[in-house]
Amino acid sequence: MAFLADALSRVKPSATIAVTSKARELKAAGRDIIGLGAGEPDFDTPENIREAAKRAIDAGHTRYTAVDGIPELKAAISAKFRRENGLDYKPSQITVGTGGKQTLFNALMATLNPGDEVIIPAPYWVSYPDMVLLCGGTPVPVVAGIETAFKITPAQLEAAITPKTKWFIFNSPSNPTGAGYTAEEVKGLTDVLMRHPHVWTMTDDMYEHLAYDPFRFATICEVEPGLYDRTLTCNGVSKAYAMTGWRIGYAAGPEALIKGMANIQSQSTSNPCSVSQWAAVEALNGPQDYISWSREKFRARRDLVVSMLNQTNGIECPTPEGAFYVYPSIRGLIGRKTPGGKVVDSDETFASELLEAEGVAVVFGAAFGVSPCFRISYATSDAQLEEACARIQRFCGALS
Question: Potential cystine with 262: which of 7, 9, 68, 218 (Cβ 3.0-4.6 Å)?
């Protein structure tokens, strides 16, 4: 009898973590590697947030807290939703987890039964389908290609809904594409959801503050208040405040769901890190000038990368509305050969050969559900990005 659970056979290790780990190994072995796989800001956490954490330690805030968040943080989250999204949530409607990933996982674990379906637009963040599988549900990818700027249409959403559909996961701006849905595009999707009252929506708004002019972010309940009672609005401090390692994510929704999620968390991790929670209070309540500063830095990097990739033989790279990723198509390179005779027959082969030949680590598109593409995170220095893109140009130019 097998010792490991059957559930493990249904999931794969995170491709983004695997690429980052491989890049680290090669760099440690002495290779000149530029890693473009990690989805985290390269800036330091703002000083006011770091100082708040130090004060929390000095004040003795180092013990267990309430399972799903201290009252001060829930109050700050409530104020954030009201201030930035026009949404009213009481503390009893808010949960805080150890990163956004745990918050999503808790919601799926608290709600999915065998046979329940979860609609996931593709390209998708690599963890969505595997989390659904681990929680006993069935992921239903809905593919949006480069022709629709990697955004699904209302007709596609309508066609994917069945009596078994329990959740629709909505991520805008998106990881891995950076694609952002306008308020009008969101309204098209919410009109569909309003016709199917058994379907709940989980919004992953982690890249809310990395939205580039003229694009304007809009979350589901902001566009359609009629969905308030069956929407879980998820967010966190990781991307907006360069706090990935602090591991604080949060969500707001109906009280019964939030209570169920708290029950799951009480039997898994218990409370998020106490010091990180106090740092998050400062992030949400304190000065917000870091957000606009970092957004402009990322916008300039986006423009640099998109320009260089679109000057590359065989690559087509749309300009994303947000986040810090680009998702170029390599349709024009499939079937070509490397100087060593290797046929580029997939985006996975492309990424592997690029790493071997030029020392540039990217994540292949099949991991995100749409091929042949690859993802670049441009959350690194201009110099590194320029050098990486030059290497990609050289690699593609050498294909025959």
Answer: 68
